[in-house]
Input
Amino acid sequence: MGKTLFDKIWDSHIVMSKPEHPDAVYINTHFIHEVTSPQAFDGLRKRGIPVFRPQKTRATADHNVPTLDQHLPIKEALSRHQVEMLTKNTAEFGVELYGLGHPYQGIVHVIGPELGITLPGMTIVCGDSHTSTHGAFGAVAFGIGTSEVEQVLATQCILQYKPKRMKIEVNGSLKKGVLSKDIILYIISKISASGATGYFVEYAGDAIRNLSMEARMTICNMSIEMGARGGLIAPDDITFDYIKGRQFAPQGADWDKALAYWKTLYSDNDAQFDKVLTFDAADIEPQITYGTNPGMGMGVTQHIPALDQVEEKERPSFKKSLEYMDLEPGSALLGKKIDYVFIGSCTNSRIEDLRLVADYVKGKRKADDVVVWIVPGSKQVEAQAKEEGIDKVFAAAGFQLREPGCSACLAMNEDKVPAGMYCISTSNRNFEGRQGPNARTFLASPLTAAAAALTGRVTDVRDNF
Ligand SMILES: CC(C)[C@H](C(=O)O)[C@@H](O)C(=O)O
Ligand code: SF4
Output
């Protein structure tokens, strides 16, 4: 019987396997950041263990960094401490750090791919749930906890039970104004924030195949928001073209050898999945969330479910969620006034996202009472945006182009949405307090966010093309 892509990669990385026990899986690349690594390094220090393969570990500072004046000392004491610990630990243990001021610094899930560190066929982990992003390259990439970070630092392996396999096919063509962010928000709204729990998802179908690497990363990034362990997409020419020539990508004879292997990375025709779901791209309209988990989403022209449309057992949490959002069951979101627009995060802060937004807003101006933050995913994205004159388009539109970091994706740094305010955000989580205490988040695509920035309201981007 044929194998799924996931099985091909997983099986070829098993160091030890015993019935009724987790597999010991070799890890090709371990990314670390300032939030989930300090205790892991402390653990090593206490036991007197070195990092087993420091060259296979890459560090960046992203969650706690400010996105203005990065050349100055970090103002918040806790954030400053976290970033200083990362600098100290990586120096002591011989791990390469792309810290503040480094030309490669940025959000961990943005820099890995753009530097050519993330490659097809790899196993990749990071103490961060959105490690699933790297699966867009046909890698088995997943988030791990702090104690597992220590395990991987010490052994370059991880003990893991093999997840079940799910295939999600999206067929047909996307309508105008619909982006990959809308695909994934749509899928999550259909299967719920726990609909893929216990599975590793492979995305397939021509609507996925036709996406750029950036767009594929957006989809894999949010796999975790439906409970999946990770998501991946078989690599193809779009993948290989993206990787070729990047800083750490294989070159010359190494490239040829790698490419020959990468071309074997697909699910065989007769491979068995534990579950298969199929969607039609033509059914997807620009999406927006109305609640406090990413599964509470809908098409931008639709109405929030009325109470009697919600299953009885889910009504209490549904009500609580809408109270937090100060929204009425059964109401529409179109035309709703918003206060902030955040275009950034590891979901949508790559150069393609910024280009799309710049094309859309060129020559236009934001609504007066809206604050618009554009936060590039990395120093390289920031530099590229400046090279292309995108910074000028944003400045003319009244959008603030800031410096790279996780920023308002989560309230762990200076960038917070004030209490009670509504923010249209291109990030991946709309949990209570996620963007700041009592801040209210609508998740959407970069185009839907840009459209709202211009009107100051929830807007159907298709009306203004
Ligand atoms: C801080 C980190 C551990 C966390 C994660 O695991 O995803 C963060 O990146 C997030 O997006 O919530
Ligand atoms: S941008 Fe947001 S989702 Fe991504 S790693 Fe940072 S905090 Fe997590």
Notes: The first strand starts at residue 14 and ends at 16. The chain is about 30% helix and 15% strand.
